[in-house]
Specification:
Length: 382
């Protein structure tokens, strides 16, 4: 004997909130998949014969056979008043418990401060393979229990596959152990390899080449920051950028930074996180490290005593870029930002962590097309 949940009454409002745009599924083509499942839904068998899980709240009278479903365990049978009552040994389907997650973890059904503040939330992020198993259940049960949708956006990521595109399997032996990778190259390098250039809902082929690229980028950023920190004099330095004395390369890198900030903001708003990371990577590696730092070295040479110091721009751009990159590579950016912070004036020490520092916004006044054209011409010639 199994327990079922009648699904059609639960599915109707869950279909409606997606159709009317209250809940948006990203990427959009999975909306059709969701609606197809929901519009052809069948009653859900929620009882499982497992040794662990949430017991089904059904009780049986051993004397008269009466079945009792109740929130609290009954002490006597309501029919024959017997005390010989046993609970059903079945447990609830895992997805039934998981479907309650958005509100049950916040204290529901009690009216808690956490529930009032965090429910509904904004974004639910998960893999596309459990859109029906988990996401649909959270929507249905959230609306049924609270009267509100549990979240506004559903962001679906793809699956991590091996370098040939096959699903990772212990039997095949093509599994990449993330813990071993983290020990070898660091968590941020792995994060970079997983995210860089990847779009919503797209599967990602993981390969040693991608992992090496993540490690190389982390090393590049580390070495660039170490160079900047070593270039900071022991006495106080004025970090304010004097626009009147900016060289063409200063104007160029500030312009490129502003454009990168605007690009990242647009891509993040469109949930194109992989493309946003690629934009930051291109700016830091190809423009800041490979070009601006090399150009700045000329003015940092002690023999060029009359040269305008590039340090205010060098430091400000690096500090801003670290904040821009932080959501993607949190560990290395925090470490580098803290080291940079320790060498600068108290102005930078008011914020204790890059995690709570303001996220960068584009400065339209910094955009300088003329400077960009000049440096681009130099780059093409070189």
């Amino acid at each position: 004997t199994q327990w079922f949940v009648k699904m059609e009454p639960l599915a109707k409002p869950a279909i409606e909130v997606v159709k009317n745009g209250q809940i948006q599924i990203i990427p959009d083509h999975f909306t059709k998949v969701y609606l197809n499942w929901m519009e052809n839904i069948r009653d859900w068998c929620v009882s499982r014969q497992l040794w662990w899980g949430q017991r089904i709240p059904a009780y049986y009278c051993q004397d008269c056979g009466e079945t009792i479903v109740a929130v609290d365990a009954p002490k006597t049978c309501p029919k024959c008043h017997s005390t010989k009552i046993e609970q059903d040994t079945d447990v609830l389907d895992t997805w039934f418990s998981s479907g309650l997650w958005p509100h049950s973890t916040l204290g529901w059904p009690e009216d808690t401060a956490d529930f009032r503040y965090f429910y509904p939330t904004t974004v639910m992020e998960t893999g596309y393979d459990i859109l029906f198993f988990w996401v649909s259940r959270m929507i249905m049960m959230g609306i049924e229990n609270t009267g509100e949708i549990p979240f506004k956006y559903v962001y679906l990521h793809g699956l991590i596959r091996d370098e040939k595109g096959d699903k990772m399997s212990k039997t095949k032996g093509n599994v990449i152990d993330p813990l071993k990778v983290i020990d070898q190259i660091g968590a941020d390098a792995l994060r970079f390899a997983v995210m860089n250039g990847n779009g919503p809902g797209n599967d990602s082929k993981m390969s040693p080449i991608k992992l090496e690229a993540g490690r190389n980028f982390a090393n590049k950023l580390w070495n660039a920051t170490r160079f900047v920190i070593k270039s900071i004099p022991d006495d106080k330095i004025n970090l304010k950028i004097n626009k009147e004395s900016l060289t063409v390369e200063d104007r160029w890198i500030l312009s490129r930074l502003s454009r990168t900030e605007a690009t990242v903001d647009k891509l993040m708003s469109d949930f194109q996180f992989g493309e946003a990371l690629s934009a930051i990577y291109d700016f830091l590696w190809n423009e800041y490290c490979d070009w601006y730092i090399e150009l700045a070295k000329v003015r940092l040479n002690p023999e060029n005593k009359d040269a305008v110091s590039p340090l205010p721009v060098l430091i400000n751009v690096l500090e801003t870029a670290l904040r821009l990159l932080h959501p993607f590579m949190p560990f290395v950016t925090e470490e580098l930002w803290q080291n940079l912070r320790s060498r600068l004036s108290p102005k930078w020490q008011k914020t204790e962590s890059i995690m709570v520092a303001k996220y960068p916004k584009a400065d339209n006044d910094a955009v300088d097309t003329e400077a960009e054209n000049i440096i681009e011409s130099v780059s093409d010639i070189t």
